[in-house]
Design goal:
284 residues; SH3 type barrels; six-stranded mixed sheet; six-stranded antiparallel sheet; 29% helix
Length: 284
């Protein structure tokens, strides 16, 4: 419901003599909204309107259950809700704020009286009213607003993390070890019961991160937008090749004795050299 300012007019007839509301009638006030309010408050004016619309303001002067004296046609008054719009709406006059405020009011009235149509004051009386006021524009925008309010668009669900972080990565990779499984990238649990053997070739189409960890998505799952992939540590860029076995060299049981003999010879030789230079013992 729009924000209405109730300013009652004395100029109206109670009820509608059993008539249902059939039309919403558009008028131009040819004055400010405040001036129109003052005129309709005057009992000597012998005229009124259910609503007066200005930029950002809506005055309600006659309850829609009662008959306002607006259209200059009694039968029309009995079946109409009438709206006066501030301004002349002639010679190019246009006020977007008044139009938008009117859209808000008309959308509410369309909701209250869904079978009612619209007309202009000049459709039922000899007058130029409402000038060039864009009646069809306001009516259409009001219907759109009403539809949006009554049937708001459903929120678009956020993409799962794997989709948000996915990027292209086209490679052939290989299963790093026996027992690797394809994972559901939402739950991070096995996507199915299959178990893959070491060095099985996998065609990768994209990669992503979930929880800060890397996962690789097959080319098929990438093309079908399926959230299934392999944990990054379970794939290799090259097939796994075990390292060559370490071969122990044969040992010589007499190697220790030979090494001891060489050491004794070296020591004896060094001592002889030292003594020679000291002149204590000649070389023999």
């Amino acid at each position: 419901m729009p924000n209405l300012q109730w300013v009652p007019s004395p100029n109206y007839t109670e009820w509608r003599q059993g008539n249902a509301i059939q039309k919403i009638t558009f008028h131009h006030a040819c004055s400010s909204a405040a001036s129109a309010v003052n005129w309709f408050k005057n009992p000597n004016s012998q005229t009124s309107s259910h609503f007066i619309v200005g930029p950002g303001i809506i005055y309600c002067m006659v309850d829609t259950d009662d008959t306002a004296w607006t259209n200059g046609n009694w039968n029309s008054n009995l079946v109409s809700v009438t709206i006066e719009f501030e301004g002349t709406w002639l010679n190019g006059f246009r006020n977007e704020s008044t139009i938008n405020t009117g859209v808000e009011l008309v959308a509410w009235l369309q909701d209250l009286y869904p079978s009612a149509g619209f007309n202009r004051h000049r459709d039922i009386s000899a007058t130029a009213c409402p000038g060039d006021f864009p009646v069809e524009e306001v009516w259409t925008k009001a219907a759109q607003r009403r539809e949006l309010i009554n049937n708001p668009p459903k929120p678009v669900p956020a993409l799962p993390e794997w989709q948000t972080n996915r990027k292209d990565f086209v490679k052939t990779m290989y299963i790093a070890k026996d027992g690797v499984q394809l994972l559901d990238l939402v739950t991070l649990k096995p996507a199915d019961a299959r178990v893959f053997a070491q060095n099985m070739k996998i065609d990768i189409g994209s990669m992503t991160t979930v929880g800060g960890k890397t996962y690789y998505i097959t080319a098929y799952s990438t093309s079908k937008n399926i959230g299934a992939g392999y944990f990054g540590g379970d794939l290799l860029l090259q097939p796994y090749s075990p390292p060559p076995p370490v071969v122990d060299l044969p040992t010589d049981p007499d190697a220790g004795k030979l090494n001891e003999q060489k050491l004794n010879w070296i020591i004896t030789t060094l001592n002889a050299i030292i003594n020679f230079f000291k002149g204590l013992t000649p070389w023999k």
